[in-house]
Design a protein that fits this description.
mainly alpha; 158 residues; 4 strands; two-stranded antiparallel sheet
Length: 158
């Protein structure tokens, strides 16, 4: 286990030892997530988007005709929360929700031209914000980190 590293100071300005948590993978992933998410959220806010809403829009852009239930499952979002996000995207005329021709009880989601344009601009800004956070890693290290994170997620396949 790596030694804990001081990261903050206390009232007397002495380094504060974070203890065993600095040797835990989940804690370190969470700390990195906080940095990356904050930067991404700030970039998304410039387009009046939140990261969960942007995620919905991004999947819809890449998967025209996806059903709300498939979208909720893919993003691991409660369906009731997804409805609120899709309503927001639809109100802003970024996506359309239409009845499926094959099953009139189900709906499909498609990005509008406006939605695709906003998505592309927001995706570029979010990627730039993330890149600014990752400057301590070489390109190959970034790709390796992404592959490792995907392997961790894949190890818990449902």
């Amino acid at each position: 286990m790596p030694p804990s590293k001081p990261s903050t100071t206390n009232a007397t300005t002495a380094p504060v030892d974070e203890g065993a948590v600095r040797g835990l993978m989940g804690y370190n992933v969470k700390r990195a997530y906080i940095v990356l998410h904050s930067a991404a959220q700030q970039a998304a806010a410039a387009f009046d988007l939140r990261i969960p809403t942007f995620s919905c829009l991004s999947v819809i852009v890449r998967n025209p005709g996806i059903t709300p239930s498939a979208l909720a499952e893919l993003l691991k979002i409660e369906r009731s929360n997804l409805v609120v996000m899709v309503d927001e995207l639809e109100t802003r005329e970024l996506v359309s929700r239409t009845q499926m021709k094959t099953d009139r009880r189900r709906f499909e989601l498609k990005a509008t031209v406006r939605g695709r344009r906003l998505h592309d601009k927001a995706a570029e800004a979010i990627a730039a914000a993330e890149a600014a956070c990752l400057t301590a890693l070489q390109d190959d290290e970034q790709q390796q980190l992404l592959a490792l994170l995907n392997r961790i997620e894949g190890s818990m396949a449902d």
